[in-house]
Each structure stands twice: as C-alpha cells, then as structure tokens.
C-alpha cells in the first residue's frame, strides 16, 4: 500500500485488527509499505502475526515489480488488497502474473479524473481496461466515492461495494480527561473546540480560525485546539497572530493520543473543502460524544446527520462555522443530545468490527 505510517491512529488500528483476525483464521498476512513504519508500529503488526516489507511503489518500476512478483510467488499469496494505490496501476498485471487469484482495490480518496488530449485519453482508456480487468472488487469508503467511480470510469455496479471505515469504539470514551486542562493551563469552566487534521489547504482549518474572533467576542473562555501538523502549520500560526487570538488557539502538533483531546472537548469542527472521501475524525468525535460541525463536503454527510448528530455548513464559510459554534455553546442541552445520537450512530454503523467483518467476507466470497 502507498502508505507511510507516522502515527498510530484509526487507520493503523484497522490494519492491526485485520492482521489479528486473519491470523486467527490461519491466513498468512503481509503488509507492504512505501516506507518502513516506525519500529514500534512495525512490532505491533509483527506481534499480530503479519510480516512487514518496505517497497517503493510510488511509481511503477522494474525493481519493485521483481520484488513484488517474487514475494507473491514465494509466499503463494492469492489475495491482494491494495490501499492508496490507483486502481488502474500497472502492478495489477504483476499481481496476476505472480498468481494472485483475487485482486481487491480499496479507494480511500476522492476520484479526480483529469482530461488530456485525445491521444492521451485513448492511451489511458486502453491502460484502464487492461489493468482493471482482473480486479475482483473495488471497495469504496462511502457512497460518494462509489458514485464517483461509476460516473467517471463506468464500472459495473457489482464491481463496486461501499464499506464504511470503522473505528475502535472502546478507544473513544465519553469520559473527560481533566489532565490536559492542567497541561495547557486551561482555566476551569472553559469550553473546548477541537479540530483534528493534516494541515493542508483542503482541510479548511483557516476557515475555522477566521471564525475564532467572533466566537470569543461572545464567549471569551472558549479555546480552540488544532491537533495535527502539515505544510500549512506556519501559515496558520501567522494567521492566528494576525487575528490576535493567540491566547485562545493552541496548536498541539501531531499526536498519537487524540482520544485524550477529544475527551476534554465540547465541540468538534471539520471544515473540509477537498471532497472528503470519509472523515475518520467525524466518526472519532461522534464516538467521543461530541456534537460535530462539518462541511457539506464529499462523504461527510453520510456520517454527520444534520440536526441529528451535528450541524452541517457550507464549505469555506467562517460565518456559518461561527454561528454553529455559538449555537451549541449557548445550548448545552442541544449539544448533549447531538453528542449522544452521534455516539449511537457510530456504534451502529462505523465500528471497526463491522468494517473488518465486511472486508473478510469479501476475501472469502
């Protein structure tokens, strides 16, 4: 998979549980990453019965093709499950030549189809036909993604199956962890708004930050935790300084313990504007009993139900975000109602057990 794990979050937890389940059913499990994960994450996978390999799969190449071919052939691997790779990758040919009987592609991100000149379009269509003919199933993490695949690439309906991402319900408790208040010197009675994201432009954190002055004007004891890192971190810190809200905005950096931060929060905000395939952060926040304010973006409305588990707003609209935050801060009963409904929805539809069971049923079909 084209994945370089840097932290242990819900996706890595899914891989770990999948490895454990497969090992318990006497499957041999192999993970191939574009870069070796940190040793402590690698040990978790190996202790679960999986073998971990590092191969540069960013571009199709002779050396990586030979390595993959030998691994599949030597270990007699018959099920290939790719993640974060193009479904039309030329590696599909290697998988088939090496003897894989079932190739499954997991589509985790939005499907963007770029238009080229007629000659290139013809070549791409030939490539797509050749490389996808052996794919058994394409797993979409939301109906939004599944519909994109059908519309843009004309896949037959039975080729695509939606399997929602899942999270470990037990990891996200609704009980508060007061220790973070002391760690960041947050005063008693303060309200916490949290946003967890890889800090790129498409995640829309700047729209949330631009909503901060309006919120703290009415409720000055509100603090905003921005959890994560990324290329826009410096830009966002400068924005906070220019808005003169440094006292109320805390950048935590990349964290492996986001559940601790969710436990002390009152509201979660997901201001994405990038065609989110599925928001694990939305599921994690809802499971923690938080009302979620989120953009009407990509697959997010399949998770957050407007007026039931949170409030949906139009993307790139700081005023709408500000209004929604103030509405929830001023109405604790509504916040509690949305939070309880959100946790129940995650338990029913977005649990890790449900996701793993659905995936293994595809393997065994």
Look at the structure and name the CATH superfamily of the largest domain: Glycogen Phosphorylase B
CATH topology assignment of the largest domain? Rossmann fold
**What is the overall silhouette?**
globular
Q: Report the CATH C-level class of the largest domain.
A: Alpha Beta
Give the SSE layout.
Elements: H1 10-24, E1 29-33, H2 39-47, E2 50-54, H3 62-75, E3 79-83, H4 91-97, E4 102-107, H5 118-132, E5 135-140, H6 143-153, E6 160-162, H7 179-183, E7 191-196, H8 205-218, E8 222-227, H9 233-243, E9 249-253, H10 258-263, E10 267-270, H11 280-287, E11 292-295, E12 310-313, H12 318-329, H13 332-349, H14 352-364
Parallel strand pairs: 1-2, 3-4, 4-5, 5-6, 7-8, 7-10, 8-9, 10-11, 11-12
What does this structure look like?
This protein has 14 helices and 12 strands. It has 365 residues and is of the alpha/beta class. It folds into 2 domains: 10-166 and 351-364, Glycogen Phosphorylase B (Rossmann fold, 3-Layer(aba) Sandwich); 171-349, Rossmann fold (3-Layer(aba) Sandwich), CATH 3.40.50.2000. Helix 8 (205-218) runs parallel beside helix 9 (233-243). The longest helix has 18 residues, at 332-349. It is globular, with a radius of gyration of 22 Å.
């Amino acid at each position: 998979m084209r994945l370089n794990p840097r932290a242990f979050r819900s996706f890595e937890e899914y891989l770990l549980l999948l490895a454990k389940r497969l090992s318990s059913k006497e499957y041999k499990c192999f993970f191939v990453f574009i870069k070796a994960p940190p040793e402590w994450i690698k040990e978790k996978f190996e202790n679960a019965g999986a073998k971990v390999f590092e191969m540069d799969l960013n571009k199709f190449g002779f050396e990586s093709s030979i390595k993959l071919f030998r691994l599949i052939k030597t270990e007699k691997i018959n099920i290939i499950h790719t993640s974060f790779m193009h479904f039309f990758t030329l590696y599909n040919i290697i998988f088939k030549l090496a003897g894989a009987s079932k190739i499954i592609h997991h589509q985790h991100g939005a499907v963007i189809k770029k238009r080229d000149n007629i000659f290139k379009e013809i070549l791409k269509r030939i490539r797509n036909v050749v490389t996808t003919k052996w794919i058994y199933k394409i797993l979409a993490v939301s109906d939004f993604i599944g519909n994109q695949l059908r519309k843009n690439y004309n896949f037959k309906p039975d080729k695509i199956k939606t399997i929602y991402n899942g999270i470990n319900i037990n990891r996200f408790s609704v009980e508060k962890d007061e220790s973070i208040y002391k760690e960041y010197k947050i005063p008693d009675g303060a309200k916490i708004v949290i946003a967890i994201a890889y800090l790129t432009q498409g995640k829309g954190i700047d729209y949330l930050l631009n909503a901060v002055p309006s919120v703290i004007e009415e409720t000055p004891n509100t603090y905003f935790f921005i959890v994560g890192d990324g290329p826009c971190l410096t830009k966002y810190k400068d924005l906070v300084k220019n808005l003169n809200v440094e006292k109320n905005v805390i950048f935590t950096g990349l964290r492996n313990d986001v559940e601790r931060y969710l436990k002390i929060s009152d509201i979660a905000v997901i201001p994405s504007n990038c065609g989110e395939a599925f928001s694990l952060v939305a599921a994690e926040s809802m499971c923690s009993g938080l009302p979620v304010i989120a953009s009407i973006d990509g697959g997010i409305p399949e998770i957050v139900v407007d007026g039931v588990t949170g409030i949906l707003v139009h993307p790139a609209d700081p005023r709408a975000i500000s209004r929604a935050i103030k509405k929830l801060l001023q109405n604790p009963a509504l916040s509690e109602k949305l939070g309880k409904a959100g946790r129940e929805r995650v338990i029913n539809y977005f649990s890790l057990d449900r996701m793993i069971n659905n995936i293994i049923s595809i393997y065994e079909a």
